[in-house]
Amino acid sequence: MIRWWPGSRPPPPARLPATAANPAGKWDLNKRGVAARYFAATDEIIDYLVENDKEGDVMAILSNGGFDNIQVRLLERLAA
């Protein structure tokens, strides 16, 4: 289920800014109390997950494509 905050809808994905938060903060989820991160590259996602992994965590990788082979690369890093 997708929930939009009152009175607004985000722009289509192709128009979202490629920054951690846009300058006006309108789409800054952290300011809305949602823990969110922005990663410019797949390597950054893997690094973050490996560095912040705790025993008992569950990670789910959902993608509609290859996503730079993140599933295999993440498992290899976690096993190291």
Task: Write up this protein.
By secondary structure, this protein is mainly alpha-helical. It folds into two domains: 11-40, no CATH class; 41-80, no CATH class. 26% of the residues lie in helices and 0% in strands. The protein is built from two helices and no strands. It has helices spanning 42-52, 70-79. Helix 1 (42-52) runs parallel beside helix 2 (70-79). The protein is globular. The N and C termini lie far apart (36 Å).
Index terms:
80 residues, mainly alpha, 0% strand, globular
Tell me the number of structural domains: 2
**Element-level helix/strand string:** HH
Q: Overall 3D geometry?
A: globular
Rg, nearest Å: 15 Å
Mean pLDDT: 78
Low-confidence stretches: none
Largest sheet: none
Strand coverage percent: under 5%
Distance between the termini: 36 Å
Which percent range fits the helix content? 25-40%
Q: What's the number of extended β-strand segments?
A: 0
Structural class by helix and strand composition: mainly alpha
Report the total helices.
2
Question: Can you lay out the helices and strands and say which pair or pack?
Answer:
Elements lengths: L41 H11 L17 H10 L1
Helix pairs in contact: 1-2
Short description:
This protein has helices spanning 42-52, 70-79.
